[in-house]
Amino acid sequence: MHKLIFISLFIATIVLSCEKLLIESDCEDTPVNNFELMWEIIDRNYSFFEYKNINWDSIYDSYRPRISNELSDSELFQVLSGMLFELRDGHVNLYSGFGNSRNVEWYSLFSPNFNSELLEQYYLIDDYETWGPFYTKVFDSIGYVYIGSFSERINNADIDAVIERLYDTRGIIFDVRNNSGGFGSSGEIITGRFADKRRLVSYTLYKSGPGHNDFTAPQPNFVGPLGDKQYTGKVVVLTNRRVYSATNDFVLYMSSLPHVTIMGDTTGGGGGTPYDYELYNGWRFRIPRTMTLAYNGFNVENGIPPDINVRLSANDLRDGIDTIIEAALEHISGTNTSKN
């Protein structure tokens, strides 16, 4: 997840010698050395120990007895994956030649509040328009936009075409449910088409030393108007728990605009930029080394609560109704212009 302002304070990939790691044996590729290397890199660089109240020394004491140089690759992978899982972070992964590990509890333990078949069959149907990754439609003079991924760079011409198409509507519903991120620039590019003026949207803190609380001062990030036109009428952004990483940033930026309401469920979070590291055996893993705060100082790592909480009703789903889209349509059609 890229940020609006990227400040390189020191080299991203840290080469740690055996002497620095205090490993008594040499730096050969052994399960013990790989475990020690991973634990030490995380100890020096992970962003959220204090925020998540994680005792990393205690986790070392728990996992170190499970490591010996007799472990197979598969057994080592299971132990290292288990240790990474303790970080409770969707941006933490382990990549080997035979498998990858990933924590998905940031969304898997929650109601989905989204159904793609419902959207396609009862709302988009067959008379929608597309510009790049954007699906658009107009419901009774209210614009609707869905984008399910930021995995491809947003083309300025595509988002400008969306704004032009929906510019004269009574309001716009911008649906990013199940969008788990991608290019960090997406948030700025899209938000700029809704920005009334240049606004502070977030702060980024970068790890500046090996201590768990060693961070730079918060670096402000701003978004201002972009494109030929900016839509400043009523906007409702629809969210669920699978909104993560770069899309979490987008929701954060949009929430700073006074004419935008966030509706649906709390997002999945993912407020740190992940960096890649390599073990002695060639396996790679990644962990966040930054922290994102909202413009009001709120830490967004565990998600952004909506202004209006709406859940997808099982009865509505059975009847071909998206409860959250209907609530957004009602919100825009009503006289209440507040976020709450």
Which class of secondary structure composition applies to the elements?
alpha/beta
Rounded mean pLDDT is 92
- Which fold name is given in CATH as the topology of the largest domain? 2-enoyl-CoA Hydratase, Chain A, domain 1
- The figure for the number of domains is 2
What is the top-level CATH class of the largest domain? Alpha Beta
Strand order of the largest sheet: 3-4-5-6-9-10-14
Number of helices: 12
**Unreliable runs:** 1-25
- Strand percentage lies at 15-25%
Order of helices and strands: HHHHHEEHHEEEHEHEEEHEEEEEHH
What's the N-to-C terminus distance?
30 Å
Radius of gyration: 22 Å
CATH superfamily of the largest domain: 2-enoyl-CoA Hydratase, Chain A, domain 1
**Number of E strands:** 14
Give me the secondary-structure topology.
Blueprint: H1 18-21, H2 31-45, H3 49-52, H4 56-63, H5 73-85, E1 93-95, E2 100-102, H6 105-108, H7 116-124, E3 129-131, E4 134-139, E5 142-146, H8 156-166, E6 171-175, H9 185-191, E7 199-206, E8 219-223, E9 234-239, H10 246-255, E10 260-264, E11 274-278, E12 284-288, E13 290-294, E14 308-309, H11 314-318, H12 323-333
Parallel strand pairs: 5-6, 6-9, 9-10, 10-14
Antiparallel strand pairs: 1-2, 1-12, 3-4, 4-5, 7-8, 7-13, 11-12
